[in-house]
Design brief:
Elements (H helix, E strand, L loop, with lengths): L6 E5 L3 H13 L3 E5 L2 H10 L4 E5 L7 H10 L7 E6 L4 H10 L3 E4 L4 H26 L9 H18 L3 E8 L2 H8 L1 H17 L6 E6 L2 E7 L3 H17 L2 E3 L2 E3 L3 E7 L7 H17 L5 E3 L9 H8 L9 H4 L1 E2 L4 E2 L4 H11 L3 E5 L5 E6 H7 L20 E3 L4 H10 L4 E6 L2 E7 H14 L5 H10 L2 H24 L11 H22 L3 H4 L3 H8 L6
Parallel strand pairs: 1-2, 1-3, 3-4, 4-5, 11-12, 14-15, 17-18
Antiparallel strand pairs: 6-8, 6-11, 7-8, 9-10, 13-19, 15-16, 18-19
């Protein structure tokens, strides 16, 4: 550290001592500020943090020992080197000062050469400390903030925006198909791409923005005093510049694109981590809906277009229907502390391809799919790893009371197949495209929304006797599944955990029941039921 750039704060209740020490330090090239007691010093430190604090021990109001204690508790932009000026020289007093946070002692009467020498010694310590701090807080490849440093900055900005009621937005960005760059061109080329992307994001950002390498090929940007709409404009500008980049390595041109997720702080966002999570959910939608695009979190819950609104005013299918009315109930979820091996067994027996993952208190913490398991089980060591290590922590979920039309619009817009329905943060069901299709079909039939000639047309296309055979085959399989499940509870079965068997059996039977409902509609003619009688049965009516 260059001493001409070093700031020293002198604290002493003796004006003559302050004048003398100031003269010596200024002559040595230091920038000096003075305070008459500890209270004045604290105000000066918070307004303009010094590099070195030289303080007397004995002072009115706040003495040197208390000043040192308070300084060490402050959240300062950098480490402050503290030197005590004192006539105290006992062993116990020096230990007390060092334990409270002092770095060095200078005994009175002070000599100029010794004062300057101790300042230079402190400057060397500060230089090393700042080098280590810079290494810990900065990504060595891109020079951007690390994830930890980013969250520290986000926490400070979160409180500032909350105090002054200012908007705050976050953008998550992922380089599309980055693995191909490493696989085709090699990891050095991948490193070059990461540095180029980091430079681009920095160039399109303001000084007040914070850009971080979030992990791997993901970047996270904090945009203070920025609405979600303006953050989308920023992300679109960055996306277009990224797509226009021409990166030439070893005579070969590399073209890259990026996916962006944007989110703004809202009353429902609990903290900075929640804001990042919302942006990450939007990023997930951007990636799964085609990549090289910007998706904002607010669009995931927007109302539908005018045509849909008009249909609802006429008593459309969505009117008054919430997620809880359509969802497939979640019987049992995986716990985050269960092992990958237990999860594999769960999937094999339950005939499902994904499931919510919950914490010990039942709160939703992630989702696990067969694909996630396949990526994990390639190593035998992974079978004992907890599910939390391989699950996806970012889950697109909706509250039970969410209008079903919002979920319908979302599933139509993106390639995500299923969302999780929650109540008080705990999963209660799932809704997928198949769930919606089944609900649409049953609702249309049960409400008699198809005209008689349309119903007859459907029935004429299907052989009622074949439907009857399917009903019989499905019923036999359902009975077999029920028998298999019942056998698990026999006295000769020594199974410690029945939950996987129950869940697997019930889930399998649930699908078979759905098949029975589907086939039964087209067996009405052979059973002697009219469409009107069938509709009454679905609505819970009685047939005389």
């Amino acid at each position: 550290m260059d001493q001409t750039d070093s700031k020293v704060l002198l604290v002493d209740d003796d004006p003559a001592m302050l004048r003398l020490l100031s003269k010596w330090l200024e002559r040595a090239g230091y920038s000096v500020q003075c305070a008459g007691d500890g209270q004045q010093a604290l105000v000066a430190i918070e307004s303009d943090c010094p590099d070195i604090l030289v303080t007397d021990w004995e002072m009115p109001n706040v003495n040197g020992l208390e000043l040192c204690r308070r300084v060490r508790r402050l959240d300062l932009p950098h480490y402050v080197y503290i030197v005590f000026l004192t006539v105290k020289s006992s062993h116990d007093e020096m230990i007390a000062g060092l334990q409270i946070g002092a770095d060095d002692f200078l005994r009175k009467p002070v000599r100029e050469d010794e004062l300057v020498a101790r300042m230079r010694s402190g400057a060397r310590v500060l230089e090393l400390e700042r080098q280590l701090s810079q290494m810990a807080r900065t990504d060595p490849l891109t020079g951007l903030m690390t994830q930890r440093t980013f969250y520290e900055a986000l926490e400070r900005e979160w409180h500032r925006t909350a105090r002054f009621h200012l908007p705050l937005s976050c953008v998550m960005m992922d380089i599309d198909f980055f693995k191909r760059v490493n696989d085709i061109h090699g990891h050095p080329a991948g490193d070059t791409v990461l540095k180029v992307v980091a430079e681009l994001l920095t160039n399109v950002s303001r000084n007040s923005d914070s850009v971080s390498r979030y992990g791997g090929e993901e970047f996270c940007v904090m945009l203070p005093e920025t609405t979600e709409e303006n953050a989308v404009i920023w992300a679109e500008r960055a996306r277009k510049r990224l797509a226009a980049l021409q990166i030439v390595l070893a005579g070969k041109e590399i073209r890259i694109t990026g996916s962006f997720g944007v989110s703004q702080q809202s009353p429902e966002t609990q903290n900075g981590a929640g804001l990042v999570d919302q942006a990450d959910q939007a990023l997930l939608c951007a990636k799964q809906s085609g990549r090289d695009r910007v998706v904002r979190y607010g669009s995931l819950n927007e109302e539908n277009d005018v045509d849909l609104e008009a249909s609802e005013r006429k008593g459309g299918l969505f009117h008054g229907v919430a997620a809880k009315h359509v969802m497939a109930p979640v019987v049992v979820c995986l716990r985050e502390d269960e092992t990958v091996g237990q999860a594999a067994e769960f999937f094999l027996r339950s005939r499902i391809n994904s499931t919510p993952v919950v914490a010990a208190d039942g709160r939703l913490v992630g989702v696990l799919s067969e694909k996630d398991l396949l990526a994990a089980v390639a190593s035998l060591d992974c079978w004992q790893r907890p599910v939390r290590d391989v699950m996806k922590p970012n889950v697109i979920c909706y509250d039970e009371e969410t209008p079903i039309r919002a979920i319908y619009e979302f599933l139509c817009r993106v390639s995500i197949r299923r969302i999780v329905v929650v109540k008080d943060g705990r999963p209660t069901g799932t809704i997928g495209r198949g769930t919606l299709l089944r609900w649409f079909r049953n609702l249309v039939i049960s409400k008699g929304l198809l005209q008689d000639h349309e119903v007859r047309s459907i029935e004429e296309d299907l052989d009622p006797h074949r439907s009857k055979e399917r009903l019989a085959e499905t019923a036999r399989e359902l009975a077999h599944q029920a028998s298999e499940l019942q056998s698990r509870f026999g006295p000769d079965e020594a199974i410690e955990d029945l939950v996987p068997y129950v869940v697997g059996g019930v889930t399998g039977m649930q699908e078979l029941v759905n098949d029975l409902l589907a086939y039964s509609r087209y067996a009405n003619q052979s059973a002697g039921l009219t469409p009107g009688m069938y509709s009454m049965m679905l609505d819970g009516g009685q047939i005389d």
